[in-house]
Amino acid sequence: MFLVPVEALRQLGPRTVSYRESDTWRSGMLCRDLLTMITLVDVHKSFNGQVVLDGLNLEIETGKITVIIGQSGGGKSVLLKHMIGLIRPDSGQVLVDGVDIARLNDRRLNEIRKDFGMLFQEAALFDSMTVGENVAFPLKEHTRLKSREIDEIVEQKLLQVGLKDVAHKMPSELSGGMRKRVGLARALALDPKIILFDEPTTGLDPITADAIDRLIVDTQRLTKATCVAISHDIASTFKIAHTIGMLYQGKIIEVGTPEQVKASGHPAVQQFIQGKAEGPIMDYYVLDM
Ligand SMILES: Nc1ncnc2c1ncn2[C@@H]1O[C@H](COP(=O)(O)OP(=O)(O)O)[C@@H](O)[C@H]1O
Ligand SMILES: [Mg+2]
Predict the structure, then answer these.
(1) What pLDDT score was predicted for residue 9?
(2) Closest Cα to atom 14, ligand 1: which residue?
(3) CA torsion angle for 61, 257, 198, 278 (degrees, to 10)?
(4) Ligand 1 atom closest to 230 (CA)
(5) Quick one: fold of 61-89+103-274?
(6) What is the model's pLDDT at position 33?
């Protein structure tokens, strides 16, 4: 973190730097790292006495794809939900573009959520709505656009994810990969500057998974959005990530480029990326026969 005079930020222009009105902004100085879109500081979260996040620290780089890896049930979805304010921490800070969203009221949180697009696990489409209505949903909720304008955006977002002539279909008529694409089109509807992906390729066959991975990379290149994905799929992670972080026992124990993480000296990281049953991460006991 460093202090930047607001005037200097203004001169950089809105495309290079995005900033939000805040107390620090009003006081004439902005306290944020230009390269960091989301910062989690000492985040703790427990559910009924079960510690899930245990003093977690993480910085998400602006305009890059960060993938958080970790075992199932390890708290990856909980971490992602903190970033968009769907879960509030017991303690700690969740800074999004310099604003601590953990302390915002629901109205301001709702405002900030417009900057986010989220592709949920299983795509989470509204099954009783058509594909087009699904993609139009955030536009109807958050904008006053006319229905003709909304239709145009829906068509454009569907094209962007590689879908044509599907707006009238029901989600149940689509394959798993196509449902993911629709989920992404919906996430992109409001041109978010941050896109969150919860296990984007889990449950897909390897070919479809590869196509979705490419779509994520292409979407990031096109939109320049800051992307955070969580995954337990190592092949997919190494295909798309600029930065990889590993969540283990409620903390980020390693973070770096794919090469740096591959070379990590942490036994749990090595066990995870090599997919071995033996090691510090224990799902079950390997019996001595
Ligand atoms: N809303 C909640 N209430 C209670 N427990 C929860 C809630 N959300 C998640 N958990 C628990 O937190 C742990 C981590 O869950 P999750 O983040 O979904 O894991 P992952 O995404 O890494 O598979 C699990 O034990 C889960 O049961
Ligand atoms: Mg999960």
Answers:
(1) 41
(2) 75
(3) -140
(4) 21
(5) Rossmann fold (3.40.50)
(6) 56
Mutate to test the pocket of ligand 1, among 44, 46, 47, 272 (most ligand atoms within 8 A of CB): 47
Block means of pLDDT (10 residues each) for the chain, length 289 residues?
Answer: 39 38 40 79 97 98 97 95 96 96 92 93 89 96 94 96 95 94 96 96 91 94 96 94 97 97 95 87 55
Residue nearest atom 19 of ligand 1, based on CA coordinates: 73
The pLDDT assigned to 123 comes to 74
Whole-angstrom Cα distance, residue 232 to residue 202?
8
Residue ranges lining ligand 1, Cβ < 6 Å: 47, 52, 70, 72-78
What are the domain boundaries of the chain? 61-89+103-274
Residue 181 CB-density burial (10 A; 0-12 exposed, 13-18 middle, 19+ buried) = buried
- Secondary-structure percent of the chain, ordered helix, strand, coil, rounded to 5: 40, 25, 40
